[in-house]
Amino acid sequence: MRATYLPDGHVGLHPRRWFSLDDRPDAPDLACTRPDLLDADGLLVASIGALLLEGPDWRVLVDAGLGPVHVPADATHASIGAMVGGGLVEHAGVVGTVDAVVLTHAHDDHAGWALRGWPGFAGLDGVPHLVGAGERAPAGWRRVGEGDEVVPGVRVLATPGHTAGHVSLEVTHAQGRILVVGDVLHSVVQLEHPEWGSCFDVDPIASERSRRRVLDALSVPGTTAVATHLADVPFGVVRDGRWEPVGDD
Ligand SMILES: [Zn+2]
């Protein structure tokens, strides 16, 4: 079992706007408490990328990056700084062909290359694309829900809230399990503050419920998490409520 993070780009998030902290007067100022997570402009640095999962006789790609675009700051929303994608195509040879592409959800920064038809990725023509039931997504993408098995040992967890059909994946292997959590987590600060959702959550209550469910699951020993927005530390284990980065593979 091998899990490889494949970067596509990055985005800066205004922390107070992204986590709607103006609605939480007691929230700490991340510029004081976690300056290590912010760039020179005070934006929370979030990576954008995909995850390649390889089992004994299957290969699955999770998410599809942003695609070959550069979106200027504030062009989409006041909480979002410049958004840069496109790097994933440099890994097209590593991606090769897969049994399925699973999209945690259909936002631009997770479905970008797929929505563009995968230009430059020769091996992905005709590969089934799976997305959660209830997600707004192109016709032709297959729908999955809680408990569905994508390939042997890879199961869907319904984790709605960020979007209606957001899904996570549970990968069981000989040494333990991996949870691919998508946008259940945008930052390690949410381990301390699971009540902090994204201003984009369509259902904040469901989002918090999903985050608490996933954090409970991550506290089980032998569980490795993959959260692709966690810049530089997409792989981690949760110990004593903290994110401890681990290397890929
Ligand atoms: Zn995202």
TrEMBL record:
Pfam families linked to this entry: Lactamase_B
Domain Metallo-beta-lactamase: 47-229
Keywords annotated in UniProt: Hydrolase, Metal-binding, Zinc
Coiled coil regions, renumbered to chain: none
Gene3D superfamilies the UniProt entry points to: Ribonuclease Z/Hydroxyacylglutathione hydrolase-like
Taxonomy, superkingdom: Bacteria
Keyword Ion transport (UniProt): no
PANTHER family tied to this protein: QUORUM-QUENCHING LACTONASE YTNP-RELATED, QUORUM-QUENCHING LACTONASE YTNP-RELATED-RELATED
Similarity comment: family membership: Belongs to the metallo-beta-lactamase superfamily.
Protein name per UniProt: MBL fold metallo-hydrolase
UniProt source species: Cellulosimicrobium composti
Phylogenetic placement of the source organism: Bacteria, Bacillati, Actinomycetota, Actinomycetes, Micrococcales
